[in-house]
TrEMBL record:
It is found in: Membrane. Keywords: Membrane, Transmembrane, Transmembrane helix. GO terms for cellular component: membrane. It comes from Candidatus Scatosoma pullistercoris. InterPro entries: MetI-like_sf (IPR035906). It is a multi-pass membrane protein. Its main location: membrane. The chain crosses the membrane at residues 6-26. This is Carbohydrate ABC transporter permease.
Amino acid sequence: MALSESIKMAAVVVSLVPIMCVYPFVQKYFTKGVMLGSVKG
């Protein structure tokens, strides 16, 4: 039981690491797109 839990946690960490590495570079483009797509009101 404990082994499957640790495998799940390892899978979560392994899947989050690339996202955390790429996010700072993509963030400026993402915020620019959100500001461009927002409607002034």
